Amino acid sequence: MCKTDWSNVNPKTQAADGDRWLCIPEAIKDDIFEMAHGDGHLGFHRAWQKMRGFVIHKGAKKLRVYIDQCDECKKNAVHRHKPYGSLQPILAPPIPFHTLTIDFVTGLPRTNKGFDAVAIYTCKSTKRIEGRLGIPVVWISDRDKRFVQGFWKGIFTALRTELLYKAAYNPQADGQSERSNQTGEIWLRHWQNIHQEADWDEGLAPMQASLNASVNVSTGDPPHKLMFGVDLRMPWNLLRQAFVGSPQASRQDADECAKYAAMVMKKQYDSRHKPIFFQKSDFVYLRLAQGTEPGYVWPSRNITRKLTQRHIKCRVIERVGRLAYRLQMPPELAGAHPVVSLQHLERAPQEGDLSSAEPPSTFDPRFPEDTDRAGVDAVLDMRHRGRGRGRRKQYLVRWSGVGNEHLEWLDEDNLVGAEEKVLEYLQDFLHHTQESTN
């Protein structure tokens, strides 16, 4: 037990019954932390209140580090920071149908012709929705099994078409196809409400004509005009005379507008996200899907998805592109695709992380009762603190077994047992002082 100096105690942060506190040695501090934090994993402030009456050297700092590296907290915690990542716009050359994006709208009611899904092809340059105008140079899609398997990969290789895939459960990687999907769904929803007796697939042709004749915000012109140099003959164009201009000039203007729109979009996107990078062999936490949201599902049949753990630990194999990583999946997710967007990842404590390491204990025969006494490797510097009678001498100490990230200033009275290291420093300091004066 140790006597309390109430003049240095803030009763709002820690108090004790009576005038005595229980001093906890370093060897069992983790057991005390587990006892205070392990009941529900409720965070620092609640755990700190449970430790009222205990004294641990730098206890608040060590408790924060302990909670920050708690594996159970990482698996089940709800993270409230900004999403990770930065936008990487795919800029296509101003050549019609050089780069195509494709995405599927699924879950539609089956029509009389047997259709229940729509494939939307969008040109990156003109924003035209069309799928029958030649073979593209670049093809952007998600990781649908139709495009990942060897048959289709072989066809695209023979046609010299480059395939670009989006990461798993990361629709933000290609905003154009997702935007085309949303616009198409909205158009079909309005059309279906007017033509309730017709099947939705009968509205695909007028939807394509309407979208291709409408001005695109990023290019400033309708896709049909960028393709052919003239506006499509639509009712709103009959009131003004359409004239044939230069398609090449319109495409150059549209390319500049698209690049400017991409820069504005990247600036807005990055302002709401923060970058993060992982190294090979790093441990990360993979976010699991909750409720009905899409994503990686925890394979548990006895627990509802609402109450399953939120993260699972994986190891980084390599970086794929700028925004995805290939992971070594745990046995519970053996069949999942290993390439994951960094938006689904959280940093995990690494093996050998010394952020919370303490100097290794050494035995000093002069103090056999101190089983957790740390050894001083060297004294590096000296300073004075305070004024008048409160003036005291401090030494900068490097502990044995740890690096310079754990240097610590200690008062001279607290260096009992390290007198030889202090004497070595003073002798070396005196020697350098004499050399400088000579």
Automatic annotation (TrEMBL):
It comes from Penicillium digitatum (strain Pd1 / CECT 20795) (Green mold). InterPro entries: Chromo-like_dom_sf, Chromo/chromo_shadow_dom, Chromo_domain, Integrase_cat-core, Integrase_H2C2, Retrovirus_Pol_polyprotein, RNaseH-like_sf, RNaseH_sf. It holds the Pfam family Integrase_H2C2. Residues 374-437 form the Chromo domain. GO terms for biological process: chromatin remodeling; DNA integration. This is Chromo domain-containing protein. One of its GO terms (cellular component) is nucleus. Keywords: RNA-binding. Residues 134-231 form the Integrase catalytic domain. Residues 348-372 are annotated as: Disordered. Component of the NuA4 histone acetyltransferase complex. One of its GO terms (molecular function) is RNA binding. SMART domains: CHROMO. PROSITE patterns: CHROMO_2, INTEGRASE. SUPFAM superfamilies: Chromo domain-like, Ribonuclease H-like. The lineage of its organism: Eukaryota, Fungi, Dikarya, Ascomycota, Pezizomycotina.
